[in-house]
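A favour, since you know our C-alpha cells better than I do. Just paste the record in under my message, thanks.
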Amino acid sequence: MKTIDEQEAERHKAKMAKRKAVQDAEVAAKTIVEKGLLIVNTGPGKGKSTAAFGLALRMLGYGHRVGVVQFIKGAWHSGEQDAFAAFGDRVVWHTMGEGFTWETQDIKRDIAAAEAAWVKAQELLADPSISLVVLDELNIALRYDYLDLETVVATLKNRREGLHVVVTGRNAKPALVEAADLVTEMGATKHHFAAGVKAQKGIEF
C-alpha cells in the first residue's frame, strides 16, 4: 500500500472538500425532481442492449415492472430472456423480430414484423403498471424505414408522464436523438469479432 504522509492527506482532503462543494451546488441547481426519460443507446460498439437490460434490472430491483419489445432479434434464443423470466409477470417480454435483415432477405416480412412489434410497443407504453419500456433494436427498424419515423418519435415524445423508455440499435435517426433526454454513443475501440471470435452464449446472446 502506498505511504501517504499527513501533508498529502490534508491536501487531498481540502481538494475533495472543494470538489464536493461544486458537486453539491450543481445538484442543488437542478429543479426537476423526477422525469420519465427517453434514452437512446446507439453507436457501432457492443453494449447497447446490454446497458438497456442492466437498467431494466435496476428498475426491477426497486420493485417496478418492465416491458421489453425486441424488433429485429428473434432468430437466436437469448440468455437475458431466460434470466428475466425469473421475475414472472413483473417483466412483459415480446421478441417480435425474425433475425438480421441479411438473413431474412424479405423486406415485406421484415416490415410486417416491425409493424407488429410497434403495435406491442404501444400496448406497453400505454400500460400504467409498467415503469420502463425497452425497445430493443428499434433504431434498426427505423434505419431501414420499416416504420414511419415521425409517428414513432411523436409517440415516444408524447408518452405518459413518468414513463422511462430505452431505444437501442446502431444509427439512431437524428430526429430521435433530438427528442431524447439521454443519448449514449457506444464506441468500437476494439472488438473480438474482428479477431475471428464468433458470437458466444452469455456474451452476445
Q: What stands out?
A: The first strand starts at residue 38 and ends at 42. Helices lie at 6-28, 48-61, 79-85, 101-104, 107-126, 138-143, 149-157, 174-179.
